[in-house]
User: Fold this.
Amino acid sequence: MSMATREIADLAREIRIQILHTIKGAGMGHIGGDFSVTDILATLFGAVLKVDPKEPNKADRDRLILSKGHAAVALYSTLALRGFFPVEDLKTFAKPLSNLNGHPNRNKVPGVESNTGPLGHGFPIAVGTAIGAQLAKSGSRSFVIMGDGELQEGSNWEAAMFAGHRKLTNLIAVVDRNGFQQGSPTSKTNELDPLDKKFEAFGWEVCVVDGHNHEALLKAFTDPQTKPRVIIAQTTKGKGVDFMEGKAEWHHKVPSDEQYEQALEQVGKQ
Amino acid sequence: MSEKLEEFDNRIIFAKTLIALATENPKIVVVCNDSVGSSNLGEFRDLFPDRLVDVGIAEQNMVGVAAGLANAGFTPFVCAAAPFLTGRALEQIKADVVYTRTNVKLCGMSPGVSYGELGPTHHSIEDIAWMRALDSLPIVLPADEAQTKEAVTWAANTTGPVFMRIGRFKVPSVSQGQSPAFVPNKAMRIIDGNDITIIATGTLVSRAVAAAHQLKADGISARVINLSTVSPLDTSEILLAAKETKAIITAEESVTRGGVGGAIAEFVVQNHPVAMKLLGTDTFAPTGSVSYLLEHYGLTADSIVASARELLKHGK
Assistant:
């Protein structure tokens, strides 16, 4: 394990702990999707993104747009741990008048780029930030994280087609491919496969990785690209807690006191 | 019949103004949906090829890309036919532009029934009601050439989202040398009067002016207000109209339900109720040219005159 991946692993563990505290404290949250995206966020914020918590709106920063805005707690936990705002603030999540809404708000939370929540919005925005970076010659890269069920929204394919056409080499889309949408497996609702071939046909280079393997993610985020790149991150919903993993019911279930203790113990060892 | 005034296509002055602004400000970009021709942007594209982002026929992506460009520090003018911009991309306008408060200028071209015979799919009569429902989105409807130039300049120099309608069919000047022709957030009183007030927007302002002239010949003194900013509403000017004249007629090229008439009625009924008549394009249109359709909806000078007489006589 390299220095970088050790730091990413440490960050991922801390993010999962904060997610558990935050969701338990608020009595709400999307824990399954938060845990599936945790390693992706930890890799990005731990070793990839050029962002500065002291200057969150710096013009030439890299952009990360969390299109699956329901994983807000994972993003909040990551941003807090990286110093964008105090970790203490996570306790206010979902409380009346908190800055930390059930879905992220750019005007209230430093480090959030767009007010996401309705699905299929982040991808076009990231295409816009990528084109903007090219126009401004800022060297900034753009990243968007989507759920896999979210790819059923047509707006994503409008964005994919246009990014392919513009050959945006400063854009990376990540699909958090946990195989589930709200109530059921994505494959049973509206099958996405062959997802790699779909993106290839739209002019993208495709990278299929284990979405919990930090080294593989890091390589996929940093290898030079000649086209827009999609990282199909094979993930497990509820990753890190054995009784949550791969269970649709943990899309937005809140752990009992006993489950909370068990989950903390499991996550703490990772 | 008064002498024929010279008429202007506001899309032409819109494009000219945008080019002048973009020449000075390198942050101004255009985002469009295969609408270079219909938005009259050919010259802009020739001058600033990198700064015109044509996403093709994909309105959701168009508005999302514009929000991204704004995030990257640019001032995008989204130029697209009003029905497709506001209808197809409504949720992107709500979440990515208005709720996120990105610096995107939404320019709805050829609004109202200006596509005439192309029919209700291409008419944009619901856009004002939809945009009005969004929190703190300025809605601007320049009525003529001078107002278009000043409103576009204002939009470029103000931070935050703006929705504006740029008319397709030619209209005469209503500002008549008034300077400034457009004042943000202000209703422009262009004719004074104390019997009745006609509040009109966009393409219908010149018809309201013609109606006022006809009414004057009958001894009815009609005030004409050009409501070039629909949101936020200039409530002080509307309150004066309610207090100082006996009745209010509103005229718009959109549905009055939630539209301009709706906005004014909401205010008047809660503050100083007077007799009102709301004129607009409230139904899906039958087949017909623009001028036929405006007649169909009672939006000609003659119809406004008839409505005014009726309203003063019967209170409805």
Residues 128 and 259 of chain B are 5 Å apart (CA to CA).
